[in-house]
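Raw record, unedited: AAA family ATPase
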Amino acid sequence: MTDLDLGALLDDRSTGVIVCTGAGGVGKTTTAAALALHAAERGRRVVVLTIDPARRLAQALGLTELDNTPRPVVGVDTAAGGSLDAMMLDMKRTFDEVVLTHADPETAQQILDNSIYQAVSSSFAGTQEYMAMERLGQLRTEAVAEGSWDLIVVDTPPSRSALDFLDAPQRLGSFLDGRFIRLLTAPARAGGKLGMRAVGVGMSIAGATLGKLLGQQFLLDLSTFVAAMDTVFGGFRARADETYRLLQDPGTRFVVVAAPERDALREAGFFVHRLERDRMPLAGLVLNRVAVSRARISADRARDAAEALEESGDRHTAAVLRVHADQAETAARHRRLIRDVAAANPRLATVQVPLAGADIADLPALRAVAEALTTP
């Protein structure tokens, strides 16, 4: 393994997007916030976007809430000329804004009032990831047009869904362009009296059966939804493709975050291979919450000494030694797992962040994490 120099990466003005990805519970949100804070205090104009529905990012940055609008973070050292804004993806609001922006007022209102649209925009599988792509594209457009930011840091959802946004345009497009949907909405696509006559007279046996099962109103809503979305979906796909190309651009870097535990490292391996397969620019791996033991006494010797002290009545010192033994054992396990990762990925750049003694809940704590992240 080689050292991952995140400090140099953040200082490099050609770096415009950093995407933090990884399994749940490994400190990915904290890593994104710490990187964004460090870059801002080094003079970058940064916006950090979290897609994780948990509100840990707001808490760590000292904000009472986050929403779809970037908000300035108070307490950031701006002496170097930088700034930091933070936001959390609002899937429904982003979808609504896209419709309002790219459809005429009458068509937009038809879409927003449609029951199928309301379901798709709120809970359809893949919509969150698709809207994450859309919001990232919007932020990038604003950054270029208005000069608002020169660095965007993205914190993705936990688990393997963190990379679902790479597939989201194709998945949503397949839904709207699929043979089943086209069959159901063919009358509406025909338009006018011909379409209405097709609904009343020429509907197939399969369509009639579906009408009985799903309800004619459902089919009508579905037809209206797809017909209206035809006017804007081409733009959706074009922008998603543009954002996908942005993710492959040399100015973008993916940072995979993992804890030194077997399951988390297995997930990290999946992310690394997926990014390499899709030719996404991978910066490297952050090994977070690594236990470090600096004492010279081994875990076994500490336990033996604890037993002897307990027999002599010194239970307090014995308890301290047992805590040390547990820490030493954890540190040894982490070292073994990290050696295994290094052996399997000899060219993968990594940086280790020591296990913190307390929760990361404010800017000073984030600065400490940033220091560990940016010091190879």
